[in-house]
Amino acid sequence: LQQRLNRKTVAPKMQQQYPAFMRCYDLLQVGGEDLRALPFRERRGRLESFVATLDPSRFDLSPFVDFTDWQTLEELRRAPPHPIIEGVMLKRWDSAYVAGRPKGPWFKWKRDPHTVDAVLMYAQRGHGKRSSFYSDYTFGVWTGAEGEEELVPVGKAYFGFTDEELKQIDKYVRDNTIERFGPVRSVRADRDNGLVLEVAFEGLNRSTRHKSGVAMRFPRISRLRWDKPANEADHIETLQALLDR
Description:
Layout: H1 12-17, E1 22-24, E2 29-30, E3 33-34, H2 40-51, E4 59-61, H3 70-78, E5 87-91, E6 106-110, E7 114-125, E8 134-143, E9 150-157, H4 163-175, E10 177-181, E11 184-187, E12 196-201, E13 203-206, E14 214-217, E15 220-225, H5 236-243
Parallel strand pairs: 1-4
Antiparallel strand pairs: 2-3, 5-6, 7-8, 7-11, 7-12, 8-9, 10-11, 12-15, 13-14
């Protein structure tokens, strides 16, 4: 549904092209009966029976992952059958469904994130405690033939850095602003100047709404590359290769 996000209205044609679909993982209530206190084994059985009554073109059941040892599961986690899969979810058969994030009953074992070196292009003021800092960052990678490269935005992130790093980036933004658009500042970013950010992300989707043709899933700043010149940041082909896997 990425194509339908953040739209005030969704045209009938788009609804047909990108229909809503639900993958079912758990069953918390049915027919007015609260199932949350039941063990997962029993909830799963009830879920299987319930999903069997639904339209298979709109609903399906989350599949189990078969494994014989931890090494096999580790290999599945590192190389899932589809790049959109973030990892594996481990659940105890006897676990109830409880609020919050209690440790023990469930564990989300995510695969290692992808990383890319991108160049900071725009910065926007944050909110709340960060309202006096430029803490929301749009970054891009290089595209175009050699000698004619230009930066194209590929994502936006506003977490992953420490408070001290936030102060450093904020100073960089203020010292290197070249244009202002309301709360947004455009910073110096070319082959000879620019702050390189190592960006971690869970996956990519193709996007017709972005000039780059890609949209990152859950991007965050993993490292500030003060040591790396802007002209050594990644090219769009690096991201396109991930899409083609």
